[in-house]
Automatic annotation (TrEMBL):
Cofactor: pyridoxal 5'-phosphate
A Pfam family this chain is assigned to: Aminotran_1_2
Entry's EC annotation: 2.6.1.-
Keyword list, A-Z: Aminotransferase, Pyridoxal phosphate, Transferase
Enzyme class: transferase
Keyword check for Transferase: yes
Protein name: Aminotransferase
Single GO biological process annotation from the record: amino acid metabolic process
Domain Aminotransferase class I/classII large: 29-366
GO MF annotation, one: transaminase activity
The keyword Transferase belongs to this UniProt entry's keyword annotation: yes
Entry superkingdom: Bacteria
Protein family per UniProt: Belongs to the class-I pyridoxal-phosphate-dependent aminotransferase family.
Length: 373
């Protein structure tokens, strides 16, 4: 290792996902079901609002906490959703930026952070950069948020519970009762509860629920990346108890500085853009992919986000690892992600159905033939 490299960078690596993308780079016209972003483009009114911001000179730093019109619009939404709660809100540099600040603001070296396995790739990396210790709760095979399992993992060192519903990589959503149980558990033990709600708009059966409804100290992190296809714009937001928000902002001031100002003006407009049609398309894609594969693959039916996380089928004698399975899929021109990127086990794989119907059809054909071969 190069002598200049800091120890904190060695606690995690990103070679697994790089390997998949290296293999994929060799493919001509692959069926790409690996991408974690919507297949629609940023709606025009949002683009126009950002262009207008640029041409009218709104190009400087914004206040650290974000532009007031965006905070005001979010405040209104938050007050409606959580009446009577005292929540402060600020704009972060994407949801990832909000997650990073949450860890930096709350995690001391040695603090334990509980989250479900499988998990979003960034969670262990971010918290280990702060010296935190990941406590992964095995949630196979149904990926439910089980408060009893979480309670059993609590120790005097537990500092935070991190929940993500709808979840990446499974698409599974927690029920209000499950969220309430975890919210109350965090309250009872005085543990920070962080809720990553980046997929809150992608909810297919029933309504979205947040643990913040049941625990007013919950730190909620959300953003515009997925909902409005603005992944490159870097606009997220965080709301929660004011002292925690102030501390996160202090770190933002000396790190990210602010979310890009023109993108924030785009986000103001985004708050008025209805997404019903896109969500309806994604519901149809979810139904198509689930119904086309569930006779051959064990799948927990996703109710949100745009992922499914099937198990690698067993051929009786020996089961392939997900990494081996994905290599076979890539040989046939299909790009998917092996489960060990998101998990300590390598038994499942992630399909993103944020793709055209044509790509999904081709992907299903390859997956069906792989299961039958
Ligand atoms: C669960 C989860 N949280 C956060 C993010 C990061 O979102 P952003 O682009 O807003 O940083 C992602 C992106 O894939 C995600 O899947």
């Amino acid at each position: 290792m190069h002598p200049w490299i800091a120890d904190r960078t060695t606690t995690f690596d990103s070679s697994g996902i790089r390997k998949v993308f290296d293999l994929a780079a060799k493919l001509k016209d692959p069926v790409n079901l690996s991408i974690g972003q919507p297949d629609f483009d940023v709606p025009d009114p949002i683009k126009n609002a950002a262009i207008e911001a640029i041409t009218s000179g709104k190009n400087a730093y914004s206040p650290t906490q974000g532009i007031e019109p965006l905070r005001q619009a979010l405040r209104q939404q938050i007050e409606q959703t959580y009446p009577g709660q005292d929540r402060d809100v600020f704009i972060s540099s994407g949801t990832s930026g909000g997650l990073m600040l949450a860890m930096m603001a709350m995690i001391n070296p040695g603090d334990e952070v509980i989250f479900l396995d499988p998990y979003f790739v960034m969670y262990p990396a971010l918290l280990q950069m702060c010296g935190g210790v990941p406590i992964r709760i095995n949630s196979y095979p149904d990926f439910r948020l089980d408060a009893a399992k979480i309670e059993a993992a609590i120790t005097p060192k537990t500092k935070m519970i991190l929940v993500n519903s709808p979840a990446n990589p499974t698409g599974v959503t927690a029920t209000p009762a499950e969220l309430e149980a975890v919210a109350k558990l965090a309250k009872k033990h005085n543990i920070a509860l962080v809720s990553d709600e980046i997929y809150s708009q992608f909810f297919y059966d029933g309504d979205f629920a947040s643990p913040a409804t049941y625990n007013d100290q919950t730190i909620v992190i959300d953003g515009f990346s997925k909902s409005h296809a603005m992944t490159g714009w870097r606009v997220g937001y965080v709301h929660g108890p004011s002292e925690i928000m102030r501390t996160m902002l202090k770190i933002q001031q000396y790190s990210f500085v602010c979310s890009p100002q023109p993108a924030q003006w785009g986000a103001v407009r985004a708050m008025e853009v209805r997404l019903d049609e896109h969500i309806e398309h994604y519901r149809q894609k979810r139904d198509f992919i689930y119904e086309s594969l569930c006779d051959l693959y064990e799948i927990a039916k996703p109710n949100g986000a745009f992922y499914v996380f099937p198990k690698v089928p067993s051929d009786g004698a020996q089961t392939m690892t997900a990494t081996q399975f994905v290599e076979k899929a890539i040989e046939r021109g299909l790009l998917i992600i092996p489960g060990n990127i998101f998990s300590r086990q390598d038994t499942h794989f992630r399909i993103s159905f944020a793709a055209s119907d044509e790509q999904l059809k081709r992907g299903v054909e390859i997956l069906r033939s792989l299961a039958l071969s």
